[in-house]
Amino acid sequence: IPVDSFDLVIFGGTGDLARRKILPGLFRRFRSGQMPAEARIIGAARSDMDDAGYRQMIREAIAEFGSEEKNDAGGIDAFLGRLHYVAIDATGDGGWSQLRDLMRDGVIRAFYFSVAPSLFGALAERLHQHGIADASSRIVVEKPFGRDLASAKALNATLAEHFDEGQIYRIDHYLGKETVQNLMAVRFGNVLFEPLWNSHYIDHIQITVAETVGVTGRGSYYDKSGAMRDMVQNHLMQLLCLIAMEPPSTYDADTVRDEKLKVIRALQPVEPHQIVRGQYEASQDGPSYRDDAENPRSFTESFLALKCHIANWRWAKVPFYIRTGKRMKARSSEIAVVFKDLGHTIFEGDTARHRNILSIRLQPNEGMDLQVTIKEPGPGGMRLVDVPLDMTFADALGPDREDAPDAYERLIMDVIRGNQTLFMRGDEVEAAWAWTDPIIEGWEARNDVPKLYDAGTAGPEDAMMLMHRDGRRWREIK
Ligand code: NAD
Questions:
Q1: Model confidence over 435-453: pLDDT tens digits?
Q2: Residue 411 pLDDT more than 60?
Q3: What's the confidence (pLDDT) of residue 351?
Q4: Are residues 257 and 381 in the same domain?
Q5: What is the pLDDT of residues 323-335, one digit of tens each?
Q6: Which of 158, 301, 337, 432 sits in a 20 to 30 Å window from 395, CA-based?
Q7: What percentage of the chain has pLDDT greater than the value 90?
């Protein structure tokens, strides 16, 4: 279904994110017919360039970063015809009237701030000063949204000077992933799960986001951030909220976000012994974190594992274990809901521990499986075995899936539709920092030194101990 017509301005339209994700994504939406044929996309950045130069840049970006659609030469030409370019310095006065002249009346105006957050204020102010943005315009802002509570509050305040909360779309691309939305469909669209979704039946939850890449090329940025700020405060926290939140009364933006906010506010402080920070060492396939970050004395964590609790009735005494790291053994992201053991078995001689585990895979092979116990086939009597009831979305939903939007495309279309459900609200972001800040301040005050781990592993030994101490085990990263 096509969205309403729009003019989308991408500030930072020549940057890495625009070339790698935003424009190839928009091209896919154009091909699918969801982007109206007369919609306009205007790249705006500092480089001096004309429309033809920008179209050539994006042609090359689609060739490099697009998937199968990059062979659609006719489609690319038509899409590039929708592109314009204006040279604008966010902090200067040139280019704004040209931008205003390019924007059409009577269509949705959206502004994607794909630039450093230090420029958000200047952009917001000039959009108003030059009469380009109005009360129905939308702005999209990228991570990082602050580096602590104070800076996030300041950013929120800056944006609030010119835009209402209902106009601000803070992207967390994890929320745009198909599986993440399916998590809500499974929880709230089935009768099976909700009765079991609490401390009576769930032993613990594990969330893992493991990457194989290091920080090569973006080390100087990452070194000031680390896994807590770069991954946990935003992406993992959002996943945790969707798992833990109470059922919203309707699937609408503020109702869903109200419930997520309650989860973040109920998160208990984390004690030092419940956290393991790690940093990767050199191995035969790559340099150490410190070499990648070009900081021989860096104490920044490229890995983090922690255990936390949510102080409410549903989750009383249920630990949430979360971990994320770079240069790990596989690229794999998963949420696992591990149910409690059976209290009693009727099968004589069966001493194995059988557990139901609902595993929600974000990557690879987006999908879910539910581990159930069945009888091992054959004449051996009542021998039990655990097998997955597997639903890999690509298999289950067939070839149409090829056309399914990826996270960025879906979220941009939601901006045009005016649907904020999958975007973070300002108070959510602040609450997440309010929980994260004392943890970071704690390790800074202790001069905590991250534990080293070999690249290509599951992280430092201490992270294993975090669970072993509780008689539990991390799921294998594969
Ligand atoms: P980049 O350095 O590749 O590109 C920056 C863009 O901003 C360029 O187009 C540049 O011309 C423009 N720019 C810089 N200063 C400007 C100014 N004064 N006025 C106007 N334009 C200016 O950066 P990027 O990787 O594309 O990231 C953009 C934003 O998205 C950043 O906030 C980053 O943190 C965020 N982000 C990037 C990624 C990614 O994968 N690259 C992922 C998540 C978030």
A1: 999 999 999 999 999 999 9
A2: yes
A3: 82
A4: yes
A5: 999 999 999 999 9
A6: 337
A7: 87
Q: Are residues 244 and 343 in the same domain?
A: yes
The three-state DSSP-derived secondary structure of the chain is CCCCCEEEEEECCCCHHHHHHHHHHHHHHHHHCCCCCCCEEEEEECCCCCHHHHHHHHHHHHHHHCCHHHHCHHHHHHHHCCEEEEECCCCCCCCHHHHHHHCCCCCEEEEEECCCHHHHHHHHHHHHHCCCCCCCCEEEECCCCCCCHHHHHHHHHHHHCCCCHHHEEECCHHHHCHHHHHHHHHHHHCCCCHHHCCCCCEEEEEEEEECCCCCCCCHHHHHCCHHHHHHHHHHHHHHHHHHHCCCCCCCCHHHHHHHHHHHHHHECCCCHHHEEEEEEECECCECCHHHHCCCCCCCCCCEEEEEECECCCCCCCCCEEEEEECCECCCEEEEEEEECCCCCCCCCCCCCCCCCEEEEEEECCCEEEEEEEEECCCCCCCCEEEEEEEEEHHHHHCHHHHHCCCHHHHHHHHHHHCCCCCCECHHHHHHHHHHHHHHHHHHHHCCCCCEEEECCECCCHHHHHHHHCCCCCCCCCC
Task: For the chain, give the mean pLDDT.
Answer: 94
Residue 406 has a pLDDT of 86
454 and 357 in a common domain = yes
Tell how far the Cα of 113 is from the centroid of ligand 1, in angstroms: 8
Ligand 1 centroid distance, CA of 42 (Å) = 15
Question: 117 C-alpha to center of ligand 1: Å?
Answer: 9
* Residue with CA at minimum distance from ligand 1 atom 2: 15
CATH number at residue 108: 3.40.50.720
Which residues line the pocket of ligand 1, CB cutoff 6 A? Answer: 11-18, 45-47, 88-91, 114-117, 119, 142-144
111 lies in a domain? yes
Range of the domain at 337: 175-405+424-468
pLDDT in tens, 230-256: 999 999 999 999 999 999 999 999 999
84 included as an active-site residue: no
Mutation pick for ligand 1 pocket among 14, 16, 151, 406 (CB with most ligand atoms within 8 Å): 16
316 shares its domain with 255: yes
Could you read off the pLDDT of 167-195 as tens digits, one per residue? 999 999 999 998 899 999 999 999 999 99
444 and 399, same structural domain?
yes
Domain tally, the chain: 2
Nearest CA to ligand 1 atom 6: 12
Both 309 and 201 in one domain: the answer is: yes
CATH number of the structural domain spanning residue 391: 3.30.360.10
Let me know whether 231 and 98 are in one domain: no
Residue 68 pLDDT more than 80? Answer: no
